[in-house]
Amino acid sequence: MRKPIIAGNWKMNGTIASGSILIEAFNSVLQDMELSCDVVVCPPFTAIERAVALTRDTAIAVGAQTMDYHDAGAFTGEISPLMLTEVGVNYVIIGHSERREYYGETDETVNAKIKSAFHHNLTPIVCVGESLEQRESGHTLDWITSQLKGALVDVPKEQVSQLIVAYEPIWAIGTGKTATADQAEEVCKEIRDYIRSLYDDETADAVRIQYGGSVKSENALEILGEPNIDGALVGGASLVVDEFIDIIKAANQIGA
Ligand code: PEP
C-alpha cells in the first residue's frame, strides 16, 4: 500500500518568525499522533533553515518550492539543489503552475529539474494540471499526459517510482473551487495508467499521486479516500494550523 503524503506549500507567505510558530504548533499536535502518512512543509527559502532545525527528530520533512537544475554558476537569484541539501531539505516542488505561468517553466525545465533533484537525493513533487479552458474543451487528459511525457523524458523507472506527482487543476488553485473527488480520481487514475504504459505495473503501482487545489479539512477525507489519490499538495490551508492538522488526520485515517 502506498503511504499517503501531505505537503504544505506556503508560497511567498510569512516570515521566519511566523513560520516557526506554525511549525511549533504542528509539532505539538503531531508528537502525540502515530503517523501513517508523510508530512512535508515547504516554506519560502529564507525560512527553510529554521524549519529544518525545528523539525529535526520530528515526523515533518522540509521541502523547497522550486530550485534551479544547475549545481552552481551565473544564475542570479536562483537556488541550486546543493544549497538545498546543504540546509537539510529533502523534497522539492517542481513545475508548480505558478512557476510555469509567471516564471517561464516548461516541460523541458521540469525534466531537467527532476533529473537534478534525483542526482542530489531530493524527492521531486512534480506538478501537472490543466486550465479551465482545457477542461471545458475536453482536453484535460491529453494535456496532463503531454506534460508527464515531457517531464519524464529519460527518467528511469527506479526514479519514477520514488517521485510524487501532484495533480493540480489550475482552476482549483487558490480559488476555493475544488475538483470533485470523481474529477480528481479520473485524472489521477489516468496519470497512473499513463505511467504504467510508459514503464510497468511495478512503477505505476509505486508512484504516489497527490491532488492539489483548494484542499481543506471539509473535503480532504473524500478526496483522499479515492483509490488513486495518495495525498494532497495544500496551499492556503497549510498556513492554518487546525486546517492542516485536520488534513493530516484525514490522510492518517486513510493510511492506517
Ligand atoms: C497549491 O498552490 O499548490 C495549492 C494547491 O493551493 P490551494 O490549496 O490554496 O488551492
TrEMBL record:
Gene3D superfamilies per the UniProt record, alphabetical: Aldolase class I
The reaction(s) this protein catalyses: D-glyceraldehyde 3-phosphate = dihydroxyacetone phosphate
Keywords for the protein's UniProt record, in alphabetical order: Cytoplasm, Gluconeogenesis, Glycolysis, Isomerase
The protein's Enzyme Commission number: 5.3.1.1
Any single GO BP term: glyceraldehyde-3-phosphate biosynthetic process
MF terms (GO), sorted A to Z: triose-phosphate isomerase activity
Active site (catalytic residues): 96, 168
Alphabetized InterPro entries for the sequence: Aldolase_TIM, TIM_sf, TrioseP_Isoase_bac/euk, Triosephosphate_isomerase, Triosephosphate_isomerase_AS
GO CC, one annotated term: cytosol
Record localization: Cytoplasm
Binding positions (substrate): 9-11, 174, 214, 235-236
Taxonomy, superkingdom: Bacteria
Major enzyme class: isomerase
Pathway noted in the entry: Carbohydrate degradation; glycolysis; D-glyceraldehyde 3-phosphate from glycerone phosphate: step 1/1; Carbohydrate biosynthesis; gluconeogenesis
Job of this protein: Involved in the gluconeogenesis. Catalyzes stereospecifically the conversion of dihydroxyacetone phosphate (DHAP) to D-glyceraldehyde-3-phosphate (G3P).
HAMAP family: TIM_B
Subunit structure: Homodimer.
Family in the record: Belongs to the triosephosphate isomerase family.
Protein name per Swiss-Prot or TrEMBL: Triosephosphate isomerase
Organism field: Veillonella dispar ATCC 17748
